[in-house]
């Protein structure tokens, strides 16, 4: 056993050198590498955490946006539904109005048709009646009938009230034209004189005024004195008017009956 | 046979001597430095590291953890001394598996030099950390009577550090040599294996004790 002082000192120095060398080549690089790695990892963790938070924020943002979109969509749908409903109601209303209008038109048309029909009927009936009457009267026409018509005319004039006579007389006096007597048939001289005399006696205030005679085939049968729009006389029209009234009445009665039947059946 | 590699002299001039202790210390130093340099010259700070670098990192990390646990302080100032003590003793004791290799730790000169490093470093660290006044006060705690005892304990523990390592390593060699004479088969190999383990344990004990001394001195 020996203790070598030189070796001891040499080993002291050797160990010191070894410490320095290992610090330079081992601890320094390794420790710095480890700490750098640790820094990097913690940095990456931090970044990951930041990204996670960012992602979460974005997710929340998108979720919120989606909710809002859905709300808006719901609102728009609701609006569209409401508008559609309103539009439908509008259309229905329009259609209803159109139908009513059409009904109204139909009704009016029906009314017009009826009136037209009545008119036609009246005309036809009148014409027919006239034709019949004319042919009947033509068949029957003789002096006797004419005489009777004249008498009837005179009776009509006679049956006028005092006021009516005054009114006619006033009109005749004011009028420039002479009074006209229209007849279907040709009046002979005697008949004219008879009529003139009678008219002068009853209606004219100055007896010298002349009376004109003319023919009017539309009268069919009868005599008429026309003074400034006023007619006095007898003709077959009076009868035809009452016939027309009756036909109209009959048609209306039928229609009322039809409507009643229409209401009962759906 | 030689009990200590100090006596194996290869070259001497005047007072300069190149004995086995110094030569094999250089070999261990060269082994440590060259292998460290080879690995750390291409050190990677990323997640992808080489296996060798991983081994080095595990070693350094383990030493750091041990020092941190014992001192309850940041291990970085103590890492070069403690780490080099452990690595030097460990590798010196490990390389005895090579034929003809003589561990420098079997030389009292070496272990005394290592213990001297600890002896000097402990107050150096303590003063650097706490200041010279606070450190010196510790010797007179709790009373001034404790001063001689404290000084004695400082010296004795340094000597014990040196003697413990030296004794263990020499006894290993001695027991190995004796068994080689008595039963030259199998048993010496087993003893050599045990010697390797003892060498590692001694490296650990030496480093741990140094750490404990530093810890107790740097803690207020």
Task: Describe what this molecule looks like in 3D.
The complex is a heterodimer of chains A (266) and B (220). Chain A has 5 helices and 4 strands, in the order H-H-H-E-H-E-E-E-H. By secondary structure, chain A is α+β, with helices and mostly antiparallel strands. In chain A, helix 4 links the parallel strand 1 and strand 2 (212-215). Residues 262-266 of chain A have low confidence and may be disordered. Chain B is mostly helical. Chain B has one domain (5-218). Chain B contains 7 helices and 2 strands. Chain B has helices at 20-40, 51-71, 79-94, 108-130, 132-137, 146-182, 187-218, and strands at residues 9-13, 16-19. In chain B, helix 2 (51-71) crosses helix 7 (187-218), helix 4 packs antiparallel against helix 6 and helix 4 packs parallel to helix 7 (187-218). The longest helix of chain B has 37 residues, at 146-182. Chain B is globular, with a radius of gyration of 20 Å. The chains are: A alpha+beta (266), B mainly alpha (220). Chain A binds chain B through residues 1-12, 14-19, 21-23, 25-27, 29-31, 33-34, 36-37, 40, and chain B through 3-4, 6-7, 15-17, 19, 21-22, 25-26, 29, 32-33, 36-37, 40, 43-47, 53, 56-57, 60-61, 64, 76, 79-81, 83-84, 87-88, 104, 107-110, 112-114, 116-117.
Mean pLDDT of chain A: 80
- Give me the strand/helix succession of chain B: EEHHHHHHH
Domains counted in the coordinates of chain B: how many? 1
Q: So what's the overall shape of chain B?
A: globular
Question: Can you lay out the helices and strands and say which pair or pack?
Answer:
The complex is a heterodimer of chains A (266) and B (220).
Chain A: H1 5-140, H2 143-158, H3 162-174, E1 180-183, H4 189-202, E2 212-215, E3 222-227, E4 230-235, H5 237-264
Parallel strand pairs in A: 1-2
Antiparallel strand pairs in A: 1-3, 3-4
Helix pairs in contact in A: 1-5, 2-4
Chain B: E1 9-13, E2 16-19, H1 20-40, H2 51-71, H3 79-94, H4 108-130, H5 132-137, H6 146-182, H7 187-218
Antiparallel strand pairs in B: 1-2
Helix pairs in contact in B: 1-3, 2-7, 3-7, 4-6, 4-7, 6-7
